[in-house]
Structure formats: structure tokens, C-alpha cells
Amino acid sequence: DSNAQILIRFRNSISNNKALDNWVGNETNLCNWTGLLCHKDQTFYGLRLENMGLSGNIDVDTLLALSTLTSFSVINNTFEGPMPELKNLVNLRALFLSNNKFSGDIPDDAFEGMGRLKRVFLAENGFTGQIPKSLTNLPRLWDLDLHGNSFGGNIPEFQQKDFREFNMSHNQLEGQIPQSLSNKDPSSFAGNKGLCGKPMNPCHNSGDSNSDGSNKSNNKSVIPSHDSPQRKGKKHRIIIIIIIVVAVVVSASIVALLSILNLRRKKLHPLTLSNMQENSKSSAGNKESQSIDLTSDFKKGGDDGELNFVREDKGGFGLQDLLRASAMVLGSGSFGSTYKAMILNGPTLVVKRFRHMNNVGKQEFFDHMKRLGSLTHPNLLPLAAFYYRKEEKFLVYDFAENGSLASHLHGKNSSVLTWPTRLKIIKGVARGLAYLYENFPGQNLPHGHLKSSNVVLDNAFQPQLMEYGLVPVMRKSHAHQFMAAFKSPEVSQFGRPNVKSDVWCLGILILELLTGKFPANYLRHGNKGGNSNNNNNNNNDGDLATWVESVVREEWTGEVFDKDIMGTRNGEGEMLKLLRIGMYCCQWSVESRWNWREAVAKIEELKEKDSEDEYSSYASEGDLYSRTMTEDEFSFSRSVTN
Ligand SMILES: Nc1ncnc2c1ncn2[C@@H]1O[C@H](COP(=O)(O)OP(=O)(O)OP(=O)(O)O)[C@@H](O)[C@H]1O
After folding, report:
1. CB–CB of 229/205 below 8 Å?
2. Distance (Å, rounded) from C-alpha 523 to C-alpha 226?
């Protein structure tokens, strides 16, 4: 039978099917039928029969004859009775039965063999009994919504680690929430009176615990703590302590605020660069603080402790302006603190303190800084000046109003970073990098510290690279420990950066831009804390590229992308191309990793929109989920050779 014949048979098996009256004709106009989902090439892949008042019987045998059916939705109709037996629909990727009147227990094996299922929505029905165990080991399950039913008993242990959407609220579930789900939002479990354990209230033992003292599997021995009077008392005590702590903190803040206001009244800046100097003096220890007057050292023209301008225009400020500028701390990176300095009636600048910049002598340092200051490119944040002392250096850059790429990608409004904006950013980064390579041809690592917090954005989201070209002046041990390029596999394995180590950083930056994932979280060994992409340990055997590769190999290509760009229409093909570029830049083996010219050239070729004939199958919802790279398109060697 043709798909048209099968579908008409299916329609006829449903009651109240008026909404499907236009299901007439044959294969040629199939994709115009109400509720049918088709790819751009007109192949049918799903039924979206939502809000149509449909009821009666769902004829699964007929659905089985639709070999290309991967998505089935009857959300918000009035189907009733037990859940249809769907497990033979082994190609199904998405199942939406929410907001109907289905009822009764779902057999434990109801989803057995449905290895491709990614999205299961059974919410707002009348399902009872235990959550079916076969849901717990569907390898690709990503969205699970069971809220608003009457599921009871314990929540089974789920094998899946990552859910995008997960909701079991408003059922009658009880017992301890399995450890694997303890990182979910508490709202996912709300409205289940019998549930306890992280992220809900702690459980307490009713006294009927297992012989080994655990309460993991003995549902009856575990009850939510809010039932216990002792716990209630404890809770009250905790609340009182919290109130006292908050009161103390508030009073301390008020005192601090009053002192600041008082300082202001005395016409003193709360934090000025002079203050910063004094702070640094006292933290340097007694001996040093007695012998060095840092405030007076911070003046132009002296031998030690001088502010040196490296640009012709000088930016319209002098040392005294900088000393008087009110300043605030922007953050504290691996080299020291970074300050924003607002010069009265002058420019706003960023002053970054470096404590380990003593790899070269004074003259060499001055020469190098002058060289950096002479670089001009729209995608490089210009170095304005530097302040030299033997023990520490300050580099003064222009301030970028729009902050760093990292703060946008991992902050609250990452949605401003649309695909076209991300493409603009990576093209700018590539151009800035190419300029550096052309100007430092003999150097191993012209950038050396490329990462998203060192890419700042102007008001038009044009990127500018910062902290470039610092490797030669940085103390070697510190560079090894903290600079981004030293996190490449060749450094982890052999301790030697390579001319392609910057390319590795570019690859990681590309993958961060596309996935929205924070690279430091994918380093398996090492310090994941702080706002830096660095860790303190070079023995990392994991990275963002390994994660991307594993997701893509599992045929989850669409799911690799950041949620803010995932729905991009007509750009998916180009996004995939950039993903591949990122992966070629992240080849572990230096030989097979692209060189910077190749990477930059490929990035330049990218467009915002897919060309007409290319990737035409990305037309409708869910397509990106089903589109995967072939082995050929995505064959990478992840072994390290040198
Ligand atoms: N010129 C600038 N304009 C705007 N924001 C900036 C500028 N320079 C730095 N920042 C921001 O200030 C914060 C602190 O920067 P800092 O360089 O100290 O930390 P980092 O880049 O995370 O670490 P690292 O010391 O390894 O470079 C970061 O969020 C950074 O993006």
C-alpha cells in the first residue's frame, strides 16, 4: 500500500476525525494534508495531530506500515483507555501523547526495543502504576515528561545521564529520589507527597531500615523529612541561624556602605589605582612595603615603576589621571586581578596585573611591549600602555563595553548570540589570529592564550582578541600551568607547545561557541573552577572535542548545538561545517591537525545560510535531530602522535 492509502486507513479508524477531512488524493499531495510532517524533499516522516478533538482507537498496526514514521503526536485530544502498544514502532524518535484521557498501568516493557526514542511526552493523562522500567534504559532518551498523572511507587534508577527536559511532578510517587536524578530541578518532582532525598527534602528513616543500614531500595523505610517533628524542630533552628547570619551580613554591609559614603564625602575614591598599589605593597610583605613607595613609583619617566605608552595617540590620559580614576575589579584570572578604571572626563580602560612576567630582562620586555603596541587590526584589542616594575607588571587595554565572549556565552542572555552573530565572531577571531601569525612568523605561539574570556566584543559584536603575544615574556613555569595553548594534548603529553597549539585553542573556542558548553567542565582531570578555561593540571585526558565527537558518533548531531542556535533555519548545514572545522582544529595528532592558514581559509568560506541544494533535508522540525554526519564526514583520529 502507498503511504496515502495507509494514512487514510489510519484516519478512518479514528473517531471525530473531521479535522482530517483534507486527507484525500494520493502520494503527490501528501505533504499538504493537515498534520503531516515532511522533509524538504517531500518524504513523509511524522504525524502531528494536535488539538483536533480526535478520539477513539489509535490503530497501531496501521501505523506500523508507515516505514518512515519517526515522530507521532496526538497532544491535546480526547483519546482514552490504556496506552496504545507502540513498542513495535522501533523507528520512532518522538512520541507525544500528553493531554489526553489515557489511563491505567503501563506495562514495564512498553518501550522495550525502541532504541531510537529521544522524546517521550505522556503528561496530563490518567496513567497509574509504576513508571515503566523500559524507559530507564532507552539509550537516547533526552526529553521525558510524565507530569500530571497518577504514577505511584518508587522512581526507578535511570541509566541516562543527561536529560534536556525532565518532569515527573504531580504524580503519586514516593520513596527516595535515585541518586542519578538528584541534580534535577526540584520542580521536576513537585506535587509528589511521598518523595524525598535530593533535590527535595532529605529522607529520614522510619526505623524500618534495611539490614545494611541503607534506605536506598526499601521504599517503606524512607519518608520525607517534613513529616517528622524532630526534623521540624531542627529545620526551625536552621532557619533561626540563617536569619541571624543574614542580619549580621546586612548590618556589616550597611557599616561598609556607610564607610564608603564617608570616604566619598572626603573626596576619596573607594578604589583607585593608587589604592591598588598600596594593597599590593602591603601584600608583598613588610620588607618590601618599607622600602618601596608604590604610589610614587607609579609615575611616568622613572627608571622602575613607570607607565609607558605604546600607542601614538596615548588615549588622552596620563599617569595622574589613571591614579585618580575610580576603579572596580572585573575579575581575577590566573595571573592576577583585572580592573576597570574610569578616568574622569577621559576613556575607560582595563588594567590587568601580571605577577609572573619575568622571563626576560627589562630592555627586552620594553621592546616586546612596543612591538605589541604597534599591532593594529580591527580584531585585536589595542594595548594602550604598560606599567613596569620588577616584581609585577600592569598592562593597560581599552575597555570593551560589551564584555567578553565568555560572559555572553555562559551568562543569562546567551540568546543574543544568534548563529549569524556567532559566525561574525568566529570570522573576526580567525582574522585577528591570522594577523598575529603574519606579524610574528617566527614565533611558536603568536597568541598563546586564546579562550573565550580573552575575546571581547564591541557594541556591534565584532570580536577583539586580547592577551595575545605574551608567551615570550611570561615565566615559563607559569605559562605552562595557566596559558590556554599549553592545555593542548602535545603539551599534556610531551610538555612541548607546537606551532599548532594555538589552532587547538581556536578549535576549542569554535566548539564552545557552537555548543555553549564551558570547556573547563570537560577536562576530566584538573581544576574546573574559576572563570578561566585553564586548569592547574596538564594531565587532562578529556576535552570538549572528545565530548562533541562522542555525541556526533552517537548520531545526535543536532543535539550538539547550543539551545540558542539549535532552531536556526537554513543555517544548519553551515553550522555543521563549522563544527567539522572545530574538530579538524582539535585533532590530537599535531600532524593531522589543520594549520592556521587552512583553518582560517575554511572559516572565511562559511556563510550564514545554507545554499539552496545543500542540506535541503533540514526543512522542518526534528530534522536536525535526524541528520547525522557520515563516518566519512566525521572521521577523526583522537590518538596522540608526535
Ligand atoms: N578589555 C576588556 N573589556 C571588557 N572586559 C574585560 C576586558 N578585559 C578583561 N575583561 C573581563 O574581565 C574579567 C577578568 O579578566 P581576567 O583576564 O582577569 O580573567 P580571565 O581572562 O578569565 O583569566 P586569565 O587571567 O587567564 O586571562 C573577564 O571576564 C574578562 O573577560
Report:
1. no
2. 39
Q: CA 34 → CA 21, 23, 76, 428, distances in Å? A: 8, 7, 16, 45
Tell me: the pLDDT tens digits for 445-492? 899 999 999 999 998 999 999 999 999 998 888 888 888 888 888 887
The candidate with the shortest Cα–Cα distance to 642, out of 536, 497, 524, 502, is: 497
**DSSP of 589-616, one letter per residue?**
STTTSPPHHHHHHHHHH--SS--SSTTG
Q: Is 481 in the pocket of ligand 1 (CB under 6 A)?
A: no
Ligand 1 centroid from CA 397, angstroms = 11
From its phi and psi, is residue 625 left (phi > 0), alpha (psi between -120 and 50) or beta?
alpha
Whether residue 492 contacts residue 540, with contact meaning beta carbons closer than 8 Å, is answered with yes
- φ, ψ of residue 389 to 5 degrees: the values are -135, 155
Q: For residue 571, which phi and psi values (nearest 5 degrees)?
A: -125, 0
Q: Which atom of ligand 1 is nearest to the CA of 337?
A: 18
Q: Smallest Cα–Cα separation from 602: which of 502, 519, 510, 515?
A: 510
Give the whole-angstrom CA distance, residue 239 versus residue 138. 42
Q: How many CB atoms lie within 10 A of CB 597?
A: 11
Q: With CA atoms as reference, report the closest residue to 15 among 53, 55, 74.
A: 55
352 is an annotated ligand-binding site residue:
yes
Beta strands 44-48; 71-73: pairing state = parallel
pTM: 0.56
157 DSSP assignment: P
Bond from prior residue into 199 cis (ω within 30 degrees of 0): yes
Helix (H) / strand (E) element for 351: namely strand 348-354
Cell digits of residue 514 = 557552537
ipTM for the complex shown: 0.96
Flag whether pLDDT at 127 surpasses 80.
yes
Report residue 128 as a C-alpha cell: 497509574
- In this prediction, residue 39 carries a pLDDT of 81
Q: Distance between CA 583 and CA 511 in Å, rounded?
A: 8
Tell me the Ramachandran region of residue 555: left when phi exceeds 0, alpha when psi lies from -120 to 50, beta otherwise: left
Which residues neighbour 488 within 8 Å (Cβ) at sequence distance 6 or greater?
497, 498, 500, 501, 504, 505
What is the Cα 556 distance to its own chain's centre? 17
Pocket test for ligand 1, best of 328, 335, 393, 453 (most atoms within 8 A of CB): 453
Q: State the distance from the centre of ligand 1 to the C-alpha of 81, rounded, in angstroms.
A: 59
End-to-end CA distance of the chain: 59
CA–CA separation, 38 and 51 (whole Å): 19
